[in-house]
Amino acid sequence: MFKKNVPLIIIVLFSNQMIYAQNAPVQQKTQDASLEGKIKIQGKVRALGSRTDIVDAMIFDESDRQITTRSNNDGFFTIIVSKNSKGIVIRAENFQDLKIKIEDGKLQSESPFLLEPSPEYGGYGIIRAKKKDEISQTSFQADEIDQAPGTSRDAVKLLQTLPSVLPASVGSADIVVRGGLPGDNSYYYDDLLLPFIFHFGGAQTIIPSRMIESMDFYPGAFSARYTDTIGGVIQLRSPGSIPKKLSGEFELGMIQSGIYLEGNAFGKENSESEKVAANTTQVDNNTTNEKDNDAVGFRMGFRRTYLELYKPLIQKLASDSSFVTIPQATDYQFVFNGNHSSGTWQAYLLGAADRVSLSSDIGNSNTASGKNSFSFYNYTEVSGVKYNFNLGNGYGLNIFGEQRYLVFQQNIFNDVIDAKSHLFVLGIALDKKVNDQFSYTLGIRPKVARNQVGIDVVQYPSGDPTIYFDPELAPRNKTTVTDNYFYGDTFLDFTYSPIKPLKFNPGVNVLKGPSANQLAIDPRIGVRYEFMEGQTLKAAWGYYSQLPAIQYLISGYGNPNLDLERNIQYVVGHESKFWDNYSTDLQFWYKTSNNLTGPAVNNSNNKFENSIQSRAKGVEFFLKKKPSDFWFGWISYGWSMAEVRDPGTGAWRYSDYDRTHSFNLVYGQKITSRWNAGFRIQYMTGNPYSTVQGGTFNQNTGVYAAAPDGNTYLINKNDGRSPYFMEVDFRTEYDFLFTDWTLTSYLNILNLFNRSNVAYTTFNRDYSNTVSVTGLPILPSIGVIAKF
Q1: Are 56 and 288 in contact (CB under 8 A)?
Q2: Is 695 in a helix, a strand, or coil?
Q3: Which of 341, 347, 683, 780 could share a disulfide with 336, CB 3.0–4.6 Å?
Q4: pLDDT at 13 over 70
Q5: From CA 516, how far away is CA 773, in angstroms rounded?
Q6: Residue 136: which of 623, 588, 664, 624 has the closest Cα?
Q7: How far apart are CA 300 and CA 465, in angstroms?
Q8: More confident residue, 266 or 732
Q9: pLDDT at position 307
Q10: Mean of the per-residue pLDDT values for the chain?
Q11: Helix and strand numbers, DSSP H then E, in the chain
Q12: 537-583 confidence digits (pLDDT tens)
């Protein structure tokens, strides 16, 4: 229930195959009379620089192109050609043709046959097409995540290149979506609900890219399948395949070390000669008899940063910054998957920990130096298991269980929170495909949580305190509370297509909170209409609800009787696909909320009430070219306005996270087959802040407070605006290809022009001048990656 780049890196990767014959038989002549004057060529096709088998490669006779065959799922093939042939040609998508001569009746090469990558992107072959399930949806595959510059190959940081997806603060990977708050978003890894997705400060996603096959992002107006969120949904998906062989990656760098392994825990691996023999008849007939893989695959990883060792250096580079936060991050992952008689299963164990401290001159200090400090620690461990059953007759059943343990500790300006939470989730979803036009899913997800929260804090109003709030005069609250919560949701989601171009997606989600008054029935509907090939109109509408953040519900400090936070969302838009590899997405969106958690205005004893109204609207445009030819990239632009209504004055104010304009340009290209480069340009309107008339010295406390201007503000008035943010990031890589491994050297530069971007604006000790807190300076990193 809790909501909330780097120097030199050297990465060494390795892989191993349990049984592997390096020099397999290349030519096998028989005494069969049918081969008189002919050659039978057998072998394996692999990618140069790795041990990756190339599936479905075409092999043909250069003299008689009517004689062809293809490699099977293990990369093996057999072809029979004349002794007088000039040779054979091996061709595969995203690779350069390999021509092998035949002289004196002999092939002038040996297996494995190694193909070098193409100097161009392979279009549809490199990025798998994905059908959109939601009205507002953007999807990225693992290939795109790895190629996008300026994101450090981090999946969720990639989201900040999309329209109306903004960092919570400069340099942070945590995001605000469509005028919401960071805590309004939900994060999933398959069916596992994660309490947070980033290490503290947004340094990186807690799940490395090697453990992610794809990512779907739903910024709003999504279907009834998702619950307990009024912001966006980030859906990460684990690799679904079972690894055929053991491989891994060992990372040793100046700021981070880690290890990654994947492999086949149970299952028989045949030797190459056995596979060649078994393959002969199959390939001659251009067929492949695949057997169900009953093995168990595993993927595991561990990472640890030690950026704290570089704090003096980074502070020196960031001489214009008022402070620098350097987090210490650790994470680990274990994922197992396999098949059973009627479906598949997955098991998970994930963990992440963060620790950071800060000292800075950011106002409201009770020290003579005018500096404040905070420390922060959190740890989460998530485990779960999922079974998918094919019940036949169009029925499918998904069952998953999750347990999650979370520790959250912070000391901010002498306000202490020590919280622990244990969550258990059971999910059951029944799918039914009635026919090609109609299907539905019925699901239920009960949850049980045990929360223990200890606090020693100033009784702040909801959210961040305003400039005019004096913590020295406010009452303090010190208590420890243990609560058990039972809550959950059930949903019914339909898909109906009366005619092929038209698709309806109605549904309803029912969310029940732990209190009797916390019940929401949220109807939703989405409509897509492809009025001509590649041109689609779309619209969506729905109610969305979520539980208030846990700190506002605990007894003593909060109000256990708060209602659910709710909003209504609207989306209309148009999608276009043209010229094979190009697409656009234009969306107009609007959402309004009437009962967000805020300060108590009706009864001060409540401490918090559902007193905040908000409204947000915007336009998003996204133009994308998939990797093809020699380049790929996209342009995104978002215009938005997010406002909240002050419950004290009734005035509408800009939200703390309002950014009017956001623009991103992402470009990557292959210079040669081994050399690529790319850059990202990002621009955003500055974030708002509240101006003051100066400071007033409090003789009782010995510190300054912002001088009041005669009005009562219960939220920040946000009548000022920080300077705009702009950053250019650059990355280039060069591959040195060897028979079984690749050495990749890279140069990565964040904030290429060393611009001092203002993270936010505050005031000095006596409120006589503003203080600009800036983000990190230029951050170059070089390194090598060895892949086996």
Answers
A1: no
A2: strand
A3: 347
A4: no
A5: 44
A6: 588
A7: 43
A8: 732
A9: 64
A10: 82
A11: 3, 46
A12: 999 999 999 999 877 887 777 888 899 999 999 999 999 999 888 99
Q: Nearest 5°: CA angle at 329, between 554 and 743?
A: 150
State the average pLDDT over residues 588-600: 91
Range of 142-146, 571-575, 598-602 with top mean pLDDT: 571-575
The rounded distance, in Å, linking the Cα atoms of 175 and 158 is 11
User: d(Cα 198, Cα 178) in Å, to the nearest integer?
Assistant: 19
Of 155-164, 341-350, 420-429, 439-448, give the lowest mean pLDDT range: 155-164
**Contact residues for 270 (Cβ-Cβ < 8 A; gap 6+):** 19, 278
Between 131 and 250, name the one with better pLDDT: 250
Q: Are 69 and 286 in contact (CB under 8 A)?
A: yes
Render the burial of 488-504: b for 16+ CB within 10 Å, e for the rest: bbbbebbbebeeeeebe
CA dist 251 and 273 (Å) reads 34
DSSP 412-447: ETTEEEEEEEEEEEEEEEEEEE-SSSEEEEEEEEEE
Percent helix / strand / coil, the chain, rounded to 5: 5, 55, 40
Residue 309 has pLDDT above 80, yes or no: no
Cα 476 from Cα 231, distance rounded (Å) = 32
Query: Quick check: helix, strand or coil at residue 679?
Result: strand
H-helix or E-strand spanning residue 275: helix 272-284
Per-residue pLDDT for 291 more than 70? no
In this predicted structure, what is the pLDDT of residue 474? 67
Lowest mean pLDDT among 74-88, 190-204, 669-683, 747-761: 190-204
Query: Within 13 Å and on the Cβ side, how many CA atoms surround 489?
Result: 19
Q: CA-CA distance, 81 to 301, in Å (whole number)?
A: 47
Omega within 30 of 0 (cis) for the link into 446: no
CA distances from 237 to 234, 346, 347, 499, 625 (A): 10, 12, 13, 31, 23
Q: Which residue has the higher pLDDT, 415 or 3?
A: 415
Of the ranges 261-265, 527-531, 626-630, the best mean pLDDT one:
527-531
335: its two tokens: 């994922």
**pTM of the entire structure?**
0.83
Terminal CA-CA length for the chain: 42
Q: State the pLDDT at residue 716.
A: 86
CA distance 125 to 141: 12
Query: Which structure tokens are listed for 351?
Result: 């963990």
Q: What is the pLDDT of residue 147?
A: 75
Residues 122-127: contacts with CB under 8 Å, at least 24 apart: 122/93, 122/94, 122/627, 122/628, 123/580, 123/581, 123/626, 123/627, 123/628, 123/629, 124/580, 124/626, 124/628, 125/93, 125/94, 126/94, 126/626, 126/627, 126/628, 127/626, 127/627
Residue 330 burial (CB count, 10 A): 17
CA distance 616 to 103: 73
User: Which residue has 């640890």 as its token pair?
Assistant: 304
Pick 784 or 635 by higher pLDDT. Answer: 635
**DSSP state, residue 314:** H
pLDDT band per the 50, 70, 90 thresholds, residue 390: very high
The pair of three-digit structure tokens given for residue 650, joined into one six-digit string: 């009734």
State the Cα torsion 567-570-576-577 to the nearest 10°: 30
**CA distance linking residue 474 with residue 460, whole number of Å:** 8
Which amino acid, 722? S
Q: Long-range contacts for 512-519 (Cβ within 8 Å, ≥24 apart)? A: 512/487, 512/488, 513/487, 513/547, 513/564, 514/483, 514/485, 514/486, 514/487, 514/547, 514/553, 515/560, 515/561, 515/562, 517/561, 517/563, 518/487, 518/547, 518/562, 518/563, 518/564, 519/564
> Cβ neighbours of residue 600 under 8 Å, at least 6 residues apart?
559, 606, 607, 608, 609, 611
